[in-house]
Design brief:
47% of the residues lie in helices and 15% in strands. With 199 residues, the chain is α/β, with parallel strands linked by helices.
Length: 199
Amino acid sequence: MRAQWHHRQETALEWRIRQARLPERWALETFPFKDQPGVNKRQIMSLAELDFIPTATNIVFIGATGVGKSGLATGLLLKALQNGYRALFIKAQELFDELYASLADRSSRKLLNRLARVPVICIDELGYLNIRPEQSNIFFKLMEERYRRRASIITTNLDYDDWVNLLGNKSMVSALLSRLRHQCTTIRIDGPSLREPQG
């Protein structure tokens, strides 16, 4: 009975990991904290208790390329999956492309409903993308529907003041940030790149 139960649990976890579309299975335990003085290990391990999920608290990692934002976000997502939560990892460009495609075939309501229901979403590499106004609008709608209901993790190389350059509409960005930051842990990583040049 116990072996059967364990097998069922493992199968369910594998299914959740596949559905989450994790790029890598980076665990927080393997993150090179000693090489990244810009990250507070105690703070990350506190977030790994996953209290941010039931409280619908967002996490935003801000920092230059290669400092470990995606690794930490993936580690938190994996921890959530291991604890029975459904989650989704999606590159920002891919998300904006999907949102735009849904406008063309009029499936955006269905897509928003699906994305709004996922307990934890990680939007990775929100940066210097070419975004049309209608993509900004539907992204705002998504974040509005997740506000105070679901937790979102965002990794970005843009500080909050620069989001208007990405999303365009100043009053909409202001409304988006007031929701996003209302219940939010912002982690600015000011440290060296962890990507060593090869050769």
